[in-house]
Amino acid sequence: MADVGEFQLKAGDRAPAFELQGVDGRTYSLESFRSPYLVVMFWCNHCPYVRAWEGRVIALAERYRDKGVGFVLINANDARAYPEDSLENMIRHATEQRYPFPYLVDDAQAIARAYGARVTPHPMLFGPDRTLRFQGRIDNDHQHPERVTERYLETAIEQALAGQPVVPSELSVTGCSIKWKPGA
């Protein structure tokens, strides 16, 4: 487990450009996403934190899809060291879970570095101008959904959609460290 509270990107910073392959075989760039708001989330298949939050992330994406909020998940883990995070297994997992959003592979790990991602899951909410509005935990209890009292990502989305400043704009993220390639 890692708990990260120092971030490379700050509120107001622009989303770094990317061009990555999705599990559907398509290539996606930042410009591929037309929704006014975009949640970019660093993700993987094997992390227990990801697995615990997975159903809630799917539900959030489905709830906000028609309200102008898109979601994209990016897996930057070293698939050689963690075969469960291979593209083949990403395809299988996304299909089994019926992901309602693109799931992209960052094999070179350059995009994870550009965004300053260090753990999975690591959600970031960007506004219509693709500037960062929020990054932090999804909610306050990954293990027990019934005990959740703070829905940080959902609150940030609601504040942004209402035209309000997102407060707080940063919260530490908790998850599994990104599995960097040797020498990366």
Briefly characterize the structure.
Residues 9-162 form the Thioredoxin domain. By secondary structure, this protein is of the alpha+beta class. It has 4 helices and 10 strands, in the order E-E-E-E-H-E-H-E-H-E-E-E-H-E.
Structure description:
With 184 residues, the protein is of the alpha+beta class. It has one domain (2-177): Glutaredoxin (3-Layer(aba) Sandwich). It has helices at residues 48-64, 87-97, 110-115, 152-161, and strands at residues 2-4, 19-22, 27-29, 37-42, 69-75, 103-105, 119-120, 122-126, 132-135, 173-177. Strands 3-2-6-5-4-8-9 form a seven-stranded mixed β-sheet, covered by helices on one side. The chain has a three-stranded antiparallel β-sheet with strand order 1-10-7. Strand 5 (69-75), helix 2 and strand 6 (103-105) form a beta-alpha-beta unit. The longest helix has 17 residues, at 48-64. The radius of gyration is 15 Å and the shape is globular.
Segments where pLDDT lies below 50 for 5+ residues?
none
Radius of gyration: 15 Å
Task: Write the CATH fold name.
Answer: Glutaredoxin
Span between termini: 20 Å
Query: Helicity level, as a percent range?
Result: 10-25%
- Which structural class matches the secondary elements? alpha+beta
Number of domains: 1
The CATH class designation is: Alpha Beta
Topology summary:
Layout: E1 2-4, E2 19-22, E3 27-29, E4 37-42, H1 48-64, E5 69-75, H2 87-97, E6 103-105, H3 110-115, E7 119-120, E8 122-126, E9 132-135, H4 152-161, E10 173-177
Domain Thioredoxin: 9-162
InterPro entries: AhpC/TSA, PRX-like1, Thioredoxin-like_sf, Thioredoxin_domain
Protein name: Thiol-disulfide isomerase or thioredoxin
